[in-house]
Design a protein that fits this description.
The chain is α+β, with helices and mostly antiparallel strands. The chain folds into two domains: 137 residues, Fructose-1,6-Bisphosphatase, subunit A, domain 1 (Fructose-1,6-Bisphosphatase, Chain A, domain 1); 95 residues, D-Maltodextrin-Binding Protein, domain 2 (3-Layer(aba) Sandwich). The protein contains seven helices and 15 strands. The longest helix has 21 residues. The two termini are 33 Å apart. 44% of the residues are buried.
Length: 249
């Protein structure tokens, strides 16, 4: 694989914490809307946090980067790739809803190898890799042992390209009826971290983006769960099913 996992994990942790601290300490100046669509916004925060992360990675690693705001850093072929979401949960950040984070992953042949998620509002750093267990602030975390959906907690979401037709929403509600509790928190990366740490039992979403979930996949797997990413399209949209691996679904 030609990866020094400990070295690369430390790079990701450094970049995530520096970006997260910057997002917290400079929110007044960063919370400026640069563009918007009917379902999404972009802030100054997204671009400035991404620059901090990319600068650190490019100083300390020669692996190319796929970043949410600036895309792919190379046109060359590659095996290993950094995947960066500088601010997952931008709309939450803009409205002072404390479910947002920095998410950095390293993939090899698009298989998640390393994941770091920094919940900067709570100073919580989640991490995991194929060579390590999963940790929250250096304390080992594990997925839950819930076996039945009617005992469980599902996290899901409504990404930008969600089908809002009556039929699609009715099907979603039918699925909700199988669960004890359902949550939508507006951050795919935080949802992944909550599955990894046993706060939730399943995270499921269609047409999320790879940069939203790649780090979470590595952490969920390292915590003993099962992270499935499928149906990637040319916009890097994916379907996601991250479970505690005990659920019968």
């Amino acid at each position: 694989m030609n990866l020094e996992c400990e070295k690369e994990l430390n790079i990701a942790k450094k970049a995530a914490k520096e970006a997260g601290k910057y997002l917290i300490n400079n929110k007044n100046s960063l919370n400026k809307e640069l563009s918007s669509t009917s379902r999404d916004i972009k802030l100054q925060a997204d671009f400035e946090a991404e620059k901090i992360i990319k600068d650190i990675i490019q100083r300390e690693s020669d692996i190319p980067i796929l970043a949410e705001e600036t895309g792919m850093s190379t046109d060359n072929s590659f095996k290993n790739l950094w995947i960066v979401d500088p601010l997952d949960g931008t709309a939450n950040y803009a409205r002072d809803i404390p479910f947002c984070c920095v998410s950095i992953a390293l993939v090899s042949d698009f298989k998640p190898i390393i994941g770091v998620i920094y919940d900067f509002n709570n100073d919580n750093l989640y991490e995991g890799s194929i060579n390590t267990h999963a940790y929250l602030n250096n304390e080992k975390i594990e997925v839950s042992t819930t076996k039945r959906s009617d005992d469980g907690l599902l996290i899901t979401g409504l990404p930008n390209d969600t089908d809002y037709s009556d039929e699609a929403l009715i099907n979603m509600i039918r699925n909700f009826q199988n669960w004890r509790k359902v949550r939508m928190i507006g951050s795919a990366a935080m949802a992944s971290a909550y599955v990894a740490s046993g706060k939730a039992d399943l995270y499921m979403e269609s047409k999320s983006y790879l940069w939203d979930v790649a780090a979470g996949a590595a952490i969920v797997n390292a915590a003993g769960g099962k992270a499935i990413i499928s149906n990637q399209n040319d916009k890097f949209q994916v379907d996601v099913l991250f479970s505690n691996s005990s659920l019968k679904i």
